[in-house]
Amino acid sequence: MFSKLKIKGGRPKQTNSNTSELARREQRLAYTLLLPTFIILALIAFYPLGQVFYTSFTDKTFASGEKTHFIGFDNYKRLLSITIKELPPIIDEKTGKQKIDPRTGEKLYERAIRVLPRKPIRYRELTQFSLFGKRYVIGATDRDFIQAIWNTISFTVISVLAETILGLGIALVMNSNFKGRGIMRATMLVPWAVITVVSARIWEFMLAPSRIGFFNMIFEKLGIGDGNMVFLSNKSIALPTLIIVDVWKTTPFMALLILAGLQLIPKSIYEAAKVDGASPIRQFFSITLPLLKPSLAVALVFRTLDALRVFDIFQVLLAQKTYSMASYNYYQLIGNRAMGLASAIGVIIFIIIFGFAVLYMKLLGVDTE
Amino acid sequence: MKRGLVLLLVLALAFGVMGTALAENEKVVITIATGAVGQEYQLSVEAAQRYMELHPDVEVKVLVTPDLATDRLGLYLQFFEAKSSEVDVYQIDVIWPGDLAEHFVDLYEYGAKEVVDQHFPALIENNTVDGRLVAIPWFTDAGLLYYRKDLLEKYGLDVPKTWDELEKAARIIQEGERKAGNPDFWGFVWQGNAYEGLTCDALEWIASNGGGSIISPDKKITINNPNAIEMLERAASWVGTISPPGVIGMSEEDARAIWQAGNAAFMRNWPYAYSLGNAEDSAIKGLFDVAPLPAGKSGKGAATLGGWQLAVSKYSKHPEIAADVALFLASYEEQKIRAIKGSLNPTIKDLYKDPEVLKANPFFGRLYDVFINAVARPSTATAPKYNEVSTLFFRAVHSVLTGEKDAQTAIEELELDLQDLTGFEIGQP
What we know:
The complex is a heterodimer of chains A (369) and B (429). By secondary structure, chain A is mostly helical. Helix content of chain A is 64%, strand content 6%. In chain A, α3 (21-55) crosses α16, α6 packs antiparallel against α13 (280-308) and α15 runs antiparallel to α16. The radius of gyration of chain A is 28 Å and the shape is globular. The N and C termini of chain A lie close together (9 Å). Residues 1-13 of chain A have low confidence and may be disordered. With 429 residues, chain B is an alpha/beta fold. Chain B has 2 domains: 28-142 and 306-373, Periplasmic binding protein-like II (D-Maltodextrin-Binding Protein, domain 2), CATH 3.40.190.10; 144-304 and 379-426, Periplasmic binding protein-like II (D-Maltodextrin-Binding Protein, domain 2). Helices cover 46% and strands 14% of the residues of chain B. In chain B, β1, α2 (40-54) and β2 form a beta-alpha-beta unit. Chain B starts with a helix and ends with a strand. The relative contact order of chain B is 0.17. The model of chain B is unreliable at 17-22 (pLDDT under 50). Classes of the chains: A mainly alpha (369), B alpha/beta (429). Chain A binds chain B through residues 61-65, 111, 113, 118, 121-122, 124, 208-212, 227-230, 232-235, 319-321, 331, 334-337, and chain B through 70, 73-74, 76-78, 80-81, 99, 102-103, 183-184, 192-195, 240, 244-250, 254, 257-258, 384, 387-388, 391, 394-395, 398, 402, 404, 409, 412-413, 416-417, 420.
């Protein structure tokens, strides 16, 4: 808005050159009036942010009188260094060929722990993969953090996608005319209204790894599992479980935002389309979706940025088994008291979220009218 | 009219505030931050009352802190970071003295010399950092083996003294009870979730098998040894056989839920489960007893030391009076009241011979050796990095229990991690 006005009018410049005393005085007054806003903004936004930036270059310990040293980019190096190394095959001395595991029949390679560099910082095995008959290992100096980034981003992408699709479906139903629509709209919001920590605890009880837990009981009745499924400690199903919990919780929020967008679309357009003989599906793709785009974009941005900061359900349900970026940050600050490192994590999270925000604005055109 | 009323109200409030301020100025206010688990808060308030009766010039306030130790540490750290004098006496976990020593006064300078000999020496050693006594023991904890008297009798078994015996007894009872119509019955429940509790359990296994205590008190990394690896493999073999698959997600209360519903033959837990298991609503009231944990290769069972201490803040405005309050709360008489009313294990040796205490908690006397010989986690040697040492350890153990890694690989990696973190040398247990 503001920038457009300036470009179109181009007037302020002109008045400046004409040295109109009144305009200059008004300008000065405007800046004086803006000054408190700038001071408050600097105090509440830039000061803490700057503090975190500065601390991220130090080795400060939380709640300790120990001397703090300036260590440059060491925290960032420790968090983000990644390397790829080829794993040499184990050669059988007798035959001169690669050894094969007698149990699984797979070719054997040197263990990653012997291949990854140890100095100056040790690289730990992140994952292995095969390419063109060779085996490689990816190592990271902070395996937990790289995994936390991966966990958070996959959590965000899958849960936001599911929430958007489900939310859109629910909003379309809510938008149609039927009896008890008001009650439906109110009850739909219940999962979102419950405090996340509380609902996460309830889910924790329901996901209990024995038949005390609701899901184990139901699943066993349905013939799935033996009543002893471990939902939260088994690495391969912990994240999908978490995504389901989040979808349950946040779909209502998406539905609400999309519903608000749907109600902005004038009914007369649909009536006109009907007269023209457009089918409901055609109506959806040609009218609803394009007109819904702005509200959908806002909802997506909200949810994505929120999901990237996810903390409570990770902390309550998985604690130190699997980290999200935010829960790893919390662990490094409170559990490990590494304030410098935690600040660096904070900065990296900030940059990632910022990147996502910019990407969205470019892709969906949120900032243009 | 309205304005007059408001003015009156403001004046009244101002005088009210001044009034209390004046009244408080005459008294020294000491704030103690204590736990509120079970009866803890009530017991602390009553103790504060008794102190105030003896010292009319002191007002003792009780600040309630979060139940979970990690949350409580987070709160304390914020007070310390701000060098706040808000709290004078802190209730601290047995693993914190090393990490937090710099924020506490040396209690030896405030008259603790006369009383230290009454307490368990292991606790005093644990709370002594560089020759300074940073905390006075308040109550203690150690891992115990809970067993079902009725089921051992039914199958003609003795209380297991070794892990072999425990495995065998657990298997026999589990099979028998399942055939008898209880499909939810398990042999042995314990704490297998990835958290501090797993460090305690795994330390007990390893120490009982002659595998040392992760890092020795003289700062050597001792975890990479055959006895430790063997024991971890054994523990991993329990998951899904004599212990439920979900044991890798269980903490104290999850294990107790299965046990107290009558669905387990054995349980590893802390003493607090004793009075709860004998409560009116318990399915196993009067059917169980406690014993020392089984032994491995070392021939002796091991119990991890737990419990809470009282420390006086360096930032307190009245450290002398605060120390006096702390020593009063940890005194013989006060610990006796807590033992009888709250089943909280005393740290004073003589109380284990006190008839009134023994009447309330019959197992205290029998298991005196367990409490006095409990194995300390390597918190003092690794301070201020114990929390990360413990996290690395329980995550390595958890990866073995879940089958993600074999014990050899997990322990080798753990050894490297510990070397990177602490810079200590490798040693033998």
